[in-house]
Amino acid sequence: MHGNVKTLNQFIIERQADFQYASGELSRLLSDIGTASKIINREVNKAGLVNILGDAGTTNVQGEEVKKLDVYANEQLIAALSSGGEVCVMGSEENDDIIEVKFTEGNASYVVLFDPLDGSSNIDVNASIGTIFSIYRRISEGKGAGKLEDCLQKGTQQVAAGYVIYGSSTILVYTTGNGVNGFTLDPSIGEFCLSHPDIKTPKDAKIYSINEGNEAHFPEGVKKYIEYCKVEDKASGRPYSSRYIGSFVADFHRNLLKGGIFIYPPTAKAPNGKLRLLYEANPLAFVAEQAGGKASNGKDRITEIVPSALHQRVPLFIGSENMVKLAEEYLANN
Ligand code: AHM
Ligand code: MG
After folding, report:
1. Helix %, strand %, coil % for the chain, to 5?
2. In this structure, what are the phi and psi dihedrals at residue 275, rounded to the nearest 5 degrees?
3. What residue spans in the chain does CATH classification 3.30.540.10 cover?
4. Residues with Cβ within 5 Å of ion ligand 2?
5. Least confident of 54-63, 165-174, 181-190
6. N or C: which end of the chain has fewer CB within 10 A?
7. Is the CB of 252 under 6 A from ligand 1?
8. Start-end ranges of CATH 3.40.190.80 in the chain?
9. How distant, in Å, are the alpha carbons of 41, 217, 247 from that of 167?
10. What is the pLDDT of residues 229-239, one digit of tens each?
């Protein structure tokens, strides 16, 4: 403890007994993710200095090759998760195929899927970006590296999930199925400290988040729902506010705390939407549900979709329960 402050690592150990599989493995794994995200945070914070330190692809003043931040973040996570002995296979937005972890001893029983740096087009304009992660138990037999089937589990099988938002402060939010907790990085001591205990999201709210520029390509039900959000109605507090950063973690985090709905619908161009089921939709669906919210593809619960491919996309309606339910009704009736 630092005074009254509880650090992420203290919290993880305290809550270890909540895990279905009592062992220090998952605790170590979560703490490895915390460590990797501190390293990513350090580089993200330097992003504005890129013109001074050198562009991606060039060589910086120390003679090191400057990497794109999403590539760097990916390497940090892979390194942190392969060395601990807890993880047998990984899947990343940056890698076409699964990343097998070959280890010499032990029986690594965890599977981690992640988007190392989501919303990376926002880096150049200093808007928030994030890391998303989703953790499962391995289901394949044997002791070697995990397999694709370990990665293609339904979201309901997640044992932990969360994200790190690199914003005006850096916050790590995660759940192991017993509520949602958020930890803010205190740069002066280099520790994530519990700042948002037991996060609950409002059932009803007044924010809708969608890239409305694509409206012409939205399904009728989504168009009608958006229209509903904009109609004046004192009783329900409409018109609602439109808020969209274009960075999933940042849009999700705001709506989690304030209440709201985030929609990435199917469009004519992208019939399955844009976001990825395994390392974007599922983990944040787990967090949303644990905070009292809801996540759906417009019809079915996100976490009950049986995945068929590592990088598959899914339409997403996520956030305040009653808002997601109403959006689903609009889709069903139009
Ligand atoms: P990326 O994986 O290429 O960074 O794209 C994912 C991002 C999400 O963070 C965000 O929600 C979405 O793309 C925004 O897409 P759009 O620009 O189509 O609104
Ligand atoms: Mg992404």
Report:
1. 35, 25, 40
2. -80, 155
3. 8-196
4. 115, 118
5. 54-63
6. N
7. no
8. 207-333
9. 10, 31, 11
10. 999 999 999 99
Query: Which atom belonging to ligand 1 lies closest to the Cα atom of 251?
Result: 11
Give exposure, 3-30, as e/b (b: 16+ Cβ within 10 Å): eeebbbbebbeebbeebeeeeebbbbbb
Confidence class of residue 154 from pLDDT cuts 50, 70 and 90? very high
Q: What is 8-196's CATH topology?
A: Fructose-1,6-Bisphosphatase; Chain A, domain 1 (3.30.540)
Gap from CA of 115 to ligand 1 centroid (Å): 12
The rounded distance, in Å, linking the Cα atoms of 5 and 198 is 16
Confidence (pLDDT) at 284: 98
Taking residues 73-102, report their average pLDDT.
94
Level-2 CATH architecture, domain 207-333: 3-Layer(aba) Sandwich (3.40)
- Could you tell me if the CB of 118 is within 6 A of ligand 1? yes
For residue 114, give the ligand nearest its CA: 2
